[in-house]
Write a structure and sequence with these properties.
The protein contains eight helices and eight strands. The chain is of the alpha+beta class. The strands form two sheets. A five-stranded mixed β-barrel has the order 1-2-3-5-4. It has a three-stranded antiparallel sheet with strand order 6-7-8. β1 and β2 (23-28) form a beta hairpin. α3 packs across α5 (199-210) and α5 (199-210) runs antiparallel to α8 (248-257).
Length: 267
Amino acid sequence: MSRDVERLHIARIVRRMRPRSRTWLVQAEDGRYFVAAFATGTKDDRMLVNKWVSCRVLQRLGVTVPSTHLLALSSMHASLIDNTGYSTTLPHFGSEIPVDFDRETVFDFLPHTLLGQVANLWDVTTALIVDHWLGCTKPSRTVFCRDGTRSTDGGGENPKRPFRGYVIGSSFAFGGVSWEFAQGPSWKRGDNQLQCIDIEQSLRAVSCVDGLPAKSIKQTLEHVPTEWLLGRDRNLLSQLLDELVVRRGYVKRFMLERPWTRRRDFR
């Protein structure tokens, strides 16, 4: 994939997602908003592959992930970004955020103490657990906006859960550009967040990872844009996915090692 796939042209660069972040909020020619990560034609494009694969894995686990698209960057818009290394010929990664950023407040981050107010809490919980499974050295990016008061956990009106999270994958899966599984995560925020989430949410997520078929995991390789894979990258990615199949049991072990987890919860 992707030479014959239509690319959406970026019409506006809105802002950087966070200070020093590599992702940008952009608006496409059709008016939709995307969180974009840009290709450079170098080894750094592995981070786009990581985002793409992590989003596909989350989808296979039943997480509601925003649709992903390939974006085209013009020379004019590239000049508005303070990085001249971004390609104007390669496809770029875009994760759609289905809200109007000009009218609605969007949060790049929520304190872990507010996670209980997220309507689709299971999606966010699963993303945190999958981060550890994928060997992320930084947590997945999730953006939050005000929700229409419907909770996916209860199925009805829930004014106590005013936020909705949109998980857009992690550039830092497989150790980032190194493409290897670290011995353990180098970040603690995920632990802090998981502690604030009902254990039943975590149990369900762990069960889903443990039961994900090997074939489903390996199929994530099929639709990765070929322009992002250099040299032996396709073979290396295939090997990573094989190892990911073996690592399914790691998730349960990881949760058992958390000091705040009761062993009887995972029997």
